[in-house]
């Protein structure tokens, strides 16, 4: 059976596809792939599951969040980030549960700003915290032995979008984050937040 990776074209996504492909058949998708998944259009999730399920596991490594000073963040900024990174992942689980095999899993993504905020990260910290909270809350309710975890990386070495506020943060290669994704898919744990590189 196949492992689905949503967000497969990003730095972590490409590394995760490579790591998982050593052990599983992998379908990697994103907004620019065929098939495509766009979290702002939940019907693309339904089409993907209808055409390609069942899956052994679903990995979500996508979602966008705003990064700006609190005084500049608007309600629309928060709503956009929540719709993308938080609700996009939540809806993937809700819409995808029926299409994941017994004993399969979901792996979501949050980030270090949940626990170590910096200037400009109010929205990112809040949204990543919501993802982690969802994982913990959803784990006891998923049926048929389906597991759910999140991978929470520190700053990814290959990222080109460093902000001055991240000085002093540990960095982790995308390939190492991918090993945590593999651990989530292949392991037995559920309701866990795997802190990659910190």
UniProtKB/TrEMBL annotation:
GO terms for molecular function: oxidoreductase activity. Keywords: Oxidoreductase. Gene3D superfamilies: NAD(P)-binding Rossmann-like Domain. InterPro entries: NAD(P)-bd_dom_sf, SDR_DHRS6-like, SDR_fam. It holds the Pfam family adh_short_C2. Belongs to the short-chain dehydrogenases/reductases (SDR) family. PANTHER family: DIHYDROANTICAPSIN 7-DEHYDROGENASE (PTHR43477). NCBIfam families: PRK07578.1. This is Short chain dehydrogenase. It comes from Mycetocola lacteus.
């Amino acid at each position: 059976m196949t492992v689905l990776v949503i967000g497969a074209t990003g730095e972590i996504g490409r590394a995760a596809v490579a790591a998982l492909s050593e052990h599983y058949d992998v379908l990697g998708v994103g907004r620019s792939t065929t098939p495509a998944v766009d979290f702002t259009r939940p019907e693309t999730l339904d089409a993907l599951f209808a055409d390609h399920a069942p899956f052994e596991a679903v990995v979500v490594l996508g979602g966008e969040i705003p990064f700006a000073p609190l005084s500049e963040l608007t309600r629309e900024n928060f709503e956009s980030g929540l719709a993308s990174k938080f609700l996009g992942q939540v809806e993937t689980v809700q819409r995808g549960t029926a299409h994941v095999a017994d004993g399969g899993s979901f792996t979501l993504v949050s980030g270090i700003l949940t626990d170590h905020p910096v200037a400009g990260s109010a929205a990112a910290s809040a949204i990543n915290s919501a993802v982690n909270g969802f994982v913990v809350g959803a784990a006891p309710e998923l049926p048929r032995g389906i597991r759910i975890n999140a991978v929470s990386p520190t700053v990814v070495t290959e990222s080109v979008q460093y902000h001055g506020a991240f000085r002093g943060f540990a960095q982790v290669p995308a390939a190492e984050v991918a090993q945590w994704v593999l651990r989530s898919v292949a392991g037995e744990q559920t309701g866990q937040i795997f802190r990659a590189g910190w």
